[in-house]
Every structure is written in C-alpha cells, then in structure tokens.
Amino acid sequence: MNILIIGGDARQIYCAGRLALEPGFAVRRFALGTETFSGEIPQCDVLLLPYKPVQGETIAGSVGENGEEVYLSDALNIVKDGGAVFAGKMDDEVVNSLKSRKIAVHNWFSDEALILANARLTAEGASQIITKNAPGGVSGSKILILGKGRVAKACAELFGKMGARISIAARSQEHPTDFIAPEAIANADVTVNTIPARVFGEKELTHVRRGAFILELASKPYGIDFDKACEMGIPAILASGVPGKYTPEESGRALAEVVLRHLKEGEQR
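Above: the chain's sequence. Below: its structure in token form.
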C-alpha cells in the first residue's frame, strides 16, 4: 500500500515513521523539513494531509526546498480511485467529488479518540509554555480558562493536578458575550483562551493586571485581540498547533493509529 504524506509539521514525520513499520506499507513524505520529491509526485492509495481545516488552494506546510507548494487539487488527483484521504474539514464539494471516485474521506476532527488525544497533548504543551513564562510556573499560578470544550477541560484537569488555582469562564446560549467577570480577569496570573471566536477584546484587556499574560490556544479567528493587547503592552502568546511543536512524537503516533484503525475497518467491510 502506497501512503503519501503532504505538508503539516513535525508530527507528520513521526506519523510516517509509525506507518512505515507496518508490513506492506510504502510511506513517502513531501515538504517536511528539507525532504522533497524530485519530478512528479507518484500516485498513492492513501493520502494524509495536515491536522487542520483545509483552506485555500495549497496545502499547509507543503513548501519545499525551492519554495514550491503543492496544490490541493493536484494532491487529490493522484489518489487512486477507491483509495482514502485523511484530512481536516474540507468543502462539501471537494468531499463529494472524492466520494464519486469511491475514495473514503476521513475527517481528523470527526475522530473522537484523536480529538481527546489532541486536547490532552495541547494541555501538556500549554503547561510547558506557562512554566516558561509565568514567575510561579503552573503550580504557583491562578489560571483563568476561557471555554468549556475538550481542550479547556483537559487544561483545567492537568493544571489543577499540577497545583494551579483554576477558574473557568464559558459562553452559554443566554450569555454568548460578556460572560467573563472582570474580577476573574484581574485575579488571574494567566488567562488561557480555547474559544475560536473574538471574546477577549479591549474591554476585557483593561482588567488584565500588571505582570499577567494571556495564552491563545484556539484556532483562527482566535479569541484574543492581539493588536490591542500589543498596543496596551499586555503579553499575549499565540500557541496554535501546540501538539506539533511540543509533543510531535506522541501526536504523530496518535495520527498513525487513526489511519491504521480506519484502514483496518475498511478491509473488514
């Protein structure tokens, strides 16, 4: 079975390494570090794209040595009919086109086991960032967590076990905005956002106390107004893709296990 991995970050390197251990698997990677293909990219049975939503015409992280990028349409065209594609959320039109060719489409973000693993590893990476940047580390800090999703819950659980004093502010249908109490912001040494929507703007930033900082874990469009934070002199750290930066080996293994599980399920049908 020919497996091709295009783009992404360090976790794809470890994912490839794990898959290469399987008998009968031939794994190739494009544009991870300085590794590139010469000539045309060969056809494949399985294509793995990065762990992020598929946006735009090119594949994230697919820049090679000479600045070349891989177009999504070109990558999808080299998947054999009846093959499989693993990717983040793609447009319905693209998904339907693949399914018309009997290609199985697997959304990384629809796999519950992977989502939970990613949340856990995001929390672990976030703890390293806090340890590096907060005078009291995690154990000696008051941490305000924005959100109630899996990443927020994983952070609250891990930081609490490490000795941090945790407070949580989460949106609800009744209070989609203005749900963060000013005193909660003022009391926090670290504010961690996990909500991918603008929830921490100028009004909230005015309550951040001197010496505190903000950590952004959400994806675009992000929850923090970084321009305003910079203007106000408030430290704000953008930490998207934490697992790929802080725990790439374990993150890559988690991706590989998803691929192996789905391929095995496909064989059993």
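The radius of gyration is 21 Å.
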